[in-house]
Write a structure and sequence with these properties.
The chain is of the alpha/beta class. The chain has one domain (4-270): Aldolase class I (TIM Barrel, Alpha-Beta Barrel), CATH 3.20.20. Helices cover 36% and strands 21% of the residues. A hairpin with a 2-residue loop joins β14 (233-235) and β15 (238-239). It is globular. The mean pLDDT is 96.
């Protein structure tokens, strides 16, 4: 399936308010409706964050369940949930939804760093060890989010070596966050060069870096991610929707003489069991 590209849509994120883009889905109903529209257009995976009634990021397991139930009632898109959706949450709260909603994939943010200007994005070794172990016990695929090169070394030389991460690894390279790796082509090429040979990988850029990273990732044979979590504009001054970003990515993938993986093809690529 080397010509098949997994297309993930990250609908919401934990931060972006509707005041910045009114198309950002906030409620379980809005998120599920956007997930369905993107699946119908051709998206393979949906990456989910939840918001509380004030619009702030939350790890409320009941909101995750309502949203996922709504999605599963309408389509077979692969479910990928965050484990880092609320800076106020304890480590335990960041994990308790996993057993409750049984996603196919969950994020593993592979280290701590200063996410400017907001503050420290904290992911301690103790937490990550427990998170990796928990996901293996639950049969959830770990999506390892990489923000700089040292995190790759830590995952391979420590977390994988200690058994907290299971082969083959699945990496998501995150570029353009202020305080972490920039979104230059050179950075993407370097990070890709550090990955294990049997790893599956994708990448995405934040904000204005979204499209250049998508194009470069496709050229390098990686999988791609779009969505309002990462970028609220379609072009300069033009607000995006999750659907418009998904449809553009699909056109680009097709023009590159590749094809978007169906949800079941994505499951096969990542070794997932449908839930």
């Amino acid at each position: 399936m080397s010509d098949k590209v997994i297309l993930t849509v990250a609908t919401t994120g934990a931060v972006t308010p509707k005041e910045l883009n009114p198309n950002v889905p906030i409620t379980p109903k809005e998120i599920a409706e956007d997930a369905y529209k993107c699946w119908k257009a051709g998206a393979s995976v949906v990456h989910l964050h939840m918001r509380d009634d004030q619009g702030l990021g939350t790890m409320d397991k009941h909101k995750f369940k309502e949203t996922i139930d709504r999605i599963r009632d309408t389509c077979d898109i692969v479910i990928n949930v965050t484990t880092a959706g609320d800076h106020r949450a304890t480590y335990e709260q960041r994990m308790e939804h996993l057993a409750y909603v049984q996603p196919e994939i969950a994020s593993f943010d592979a280290g701590s760093f200063n996410w400017l200007p907001g503050g420290v994005f904290e992911n301690s070794p103790k937490f990550l060890s427990k998170l990796g172990q928990t996901m293996q016990e639950l049969g959830i695929k770990t999506e390892i989010e990489i923000f700089d090169s040292g995190m790759i070394h830590a995952c391979v030389k420590y977390f994988q070596a200690k058994g907290f991460l299971a082969s083959p690894l699945y990496f998501q390279l995150v570029l353009g966050v202020l305080g972490a790796a920039s979104a230059r082509v050179e950075d993407l090429v370097y990070l890709r060069s550090l990955l294990p040979k049997d790893a599956t990988w994708g990448a995405f850029g934040i904000g204005r870096d979204h499209l250049p990273v998508l194009l470069t990732t496709l050229a390098m044979g990686g999988h791609v991610r779009v969505g309002l979590e990462d970028n609220v504009y379609y072009s300069k001054g033009v607000l995006a929707t999750n659907l418009s970003l998904t449809e553009r990515a699909i056109r680009i993938i097709n023009e590159a003489d590749k094809a978007v993986a169906t949800p079941d093809e994505a499951r096969a690529i990542l070794g997932l069991k449908k839930r």
